[in-house]
Amino acid sequence: MKFFPLVWAGLWRKKLRTIFTLLAIVVAFLLFGMLQGVNSAFNATVEKANVNRLTVTSKINFTEALPYAYLTQIEAVPGVSAVAWFSWFGTYYQDAKNFVFSFPADPVRLFDMYPEYHIDKAQLDTFEHTRTGAVIGVELAKKYGWKIGDRVTLHSTIWTKADGTSDWPFDIVGTFEVPTDSSQANQFFFNHSYFDEGRSFGKGTVGWYIVRVSDPKLSAQVAIDIDKRFENSQDETKTQTEKEFQQSFLKQIGDINFIVTSILSAVFISLLFATGTTMMQSVRERIPELAVLKTLGFSNGRVLSLVLAESVLLCLIAAGLGLGLASLIFPALKNFIGVATLSRSVVATGVLFAVLMALITGLPPALRAQRLNIVDALAGR
Amino acid sequence: MSAPTLVSIRNVSKRYQRGKQSVEVLQNLDLDIGQGEFIALMGPSGSGKTTLLNLIGGLDHPSTGEIRVGSERIDSLSDGKLAKWRARHVGFVFQFYNLMPMLSAERNVELPLLLTSLSSAQRKRNVAAALTVVGLADRARHKPSELSGGQAQRVAIARALVADPTLLVCDEPTGDLDRHTADEILGLLQALNREHGKTIVMVTHDPKAAEYASRQLHMDKGALIDAGAINAA
Ligand SMILES: Nc1ncnc2c1ncn2[C@@H]1O[C@H](COP(=O)(O)OP(=O)(O)OP(=O)(O)O)[C@@H](O)[C@H]1O
Ligand SMILES: [Mg+2]
What is the third-level CATH fold of B5-229? Predict the structure, then answer.
């Protein structure tokens, strides 16, 4: 610690240069925090997926509908303990940028399938018995200030009604919470029967089925059995665990992992060169000073660690600022990715990266300082 | 000479490899320096003064020969041991002061103490004492760029003194100063020698400066040409 003033002074020897280098690293870590944060939020969604729930979609494409008649057949597959279904509804509220995750479903089956969704029993009852009834997640309620008793009209980008319009009125009759994953509490559920009666086409179909197996160990077998049952039919199925389904869903919006990794690699590699050059230059300018330190009895190892400490300090300060900024900006992304905080593992990885970067960029100049010959350096040779 | 010998140099040679050519900068040199002496080392440019001074100060190894300082054979010490030895026994003063430009005077003076086990409070006290000895207690917070040449050299002398070394080696300490300031610095060195008992080896081109010393040595082409004591005026 007593060497800190020396390290600090060395770092700020050329103020402007240090500030520019610092800013470059700050921006890189800001980017890292944002991208990696979004990425890990998506991954967390996949991780949280339940293993004893299966998703049955059309084999052709998961946006393709399946016959409602499959319900009883799926229920008949050994190992299946419950079945629910959903459909894509694709809606926005008032303006196209106000996207709402809304799904027609069977009220009782839905909340039975997802015990992690907490709803008041009386509200669920009302929901079941109100044709135009809808229940909404508390986060969604908060976002638009919707309350029980409100009449809300959503515009569907997929479904027109018999009268040719696409505006679907609903009556909010309940709200639900998802304590284990608040990002799930931004959904909007309404009665499948209302949907099926109202739509002008596609009647008698559902988007996909959710199947609960009595034992997670059976998942693989049950999935095979379901798909086998509909083999060679008009609508072949593809049954996956919830996890696989979410992963393949995310693949559709692009392999986020790959994109994030490529961008960050490019940023960090160019940063390595920039920081490395700065550090090297900074040491080169200070050769006589470093020689004086050695003259005073600072060992080669000590001089090496002083130079390394400088680059570690620089990278840690910059990473701290970058990640700090990212975590400040992150809450603003909440509506987009559903998670409001930068995960601790992202921060930890960032700090690790910072130290690694410091060592990689600091080591060549540090070794040069270590090997410095006092007599030659003092004589300016 | 009655004082006990502090530095003893026996048959020391120093060769530098310049390309394929080997240049012998010091040739079979013998020299004894007594405890408490103030030596002025003179001679034409390129005669090997700095080379000899660096060997005495433990900055470099001789090619052959033996160098003893106190009870220690420093010619055979490893780089690491030599660094430790320098920190404990030698103070260095250079022509261009060689202070750390980013550090205040007191931080510069503190540098050698960072290698000791002294507490921060003790370091502060010793730094203040050293700055007082060189008459710069009131400039402790100044950066080198805010000091005159003479003041900067005083800070350098304080830095050389602060760890209480037995030996001070100075390479043209007044080479960059005007007559008046040079006399002040030389007076300071002389006081350190006389009152604090520091043994000093000083390289200088200036015969006036050499007069402050208790003995003058002359070098030419890598050898001492007049090893006999010439008493200062
Ligand atoms: N590392 C080295 N490599 C090659 N030659 C060297 C090296 N160090 C010193 N020399 C040579 O050794 C000779 C003596 O150098 P030194 O620096 O000791 O001279 P000096 O007496 O201090 O001269 P000056 O008064 O100019 O400072 C010079 O010719 C110099 O070029
Ligand atoms: Mg010289």
Answer: Rossmann fold (3.40.50)
